[in-house]
What does this fold into?
Amino acid sequence: MSVAIPNFFQNPTKASLNYFVLMLLRNNPKHGYMLMQDIERHTGGHWKPSHSAIYKLLNGLEADGHISSWEEKDGERARRVYRISETGIKLLEESERDFESFINAFISSLLEAERVNPDHLTVLLTKKGKAMLNGLDPGQRLKAFQKLKAFLDMNSAWVDQELESLTRR
It folds into this structure.
C-alpha cells in the first residue's frame, strides 16, 4: 500500500492531510488524537479529520516506512505514538514543492477573481509571493499591488498605534 502524498492538484484534501500529518510529526512525535487536535487548531476549527481518516493514514504511512510508532502507557491507557522517519522527511521535502505550486496557483486564481482577503495578501510579502506577483500579467499585477498597498496602509496605522501604546508603558 503506497501512501505517497498525491499531487495537490489531483486530490487536495488527501494530499493536504498527508502533508499536514508529516509536517506535524517533523519536529515532535505525537499520537493520533493529538494530530487531530493540532490540525483542528491550525485550521481555526475549520477542518477536523475523522479518527478513521487519521488512523488509516498513519497505518499506511507506517507500512510504507515514512513513520514509525511505539506504544506508551498513559496511566491505565496505552497510546500509539508516531515519529517521522528519514524516508518520511524525504517524502515531505518532495511534497513541499507540489504544495507551493498548489498554493501559488490558488492565490493566483484568487487575484484573478479579485477575491483576495488580508490573509492571502500577507503571502504576497514573502519571497515566493513576490516571485508569484512577477509572473502575473500587468493588469493582474496592478490589481494585486493596489490591494496590497491598501492592506499595508490600513495595517500600518494599527501597528503605529500599538507601538505607541507599548512604548508609553
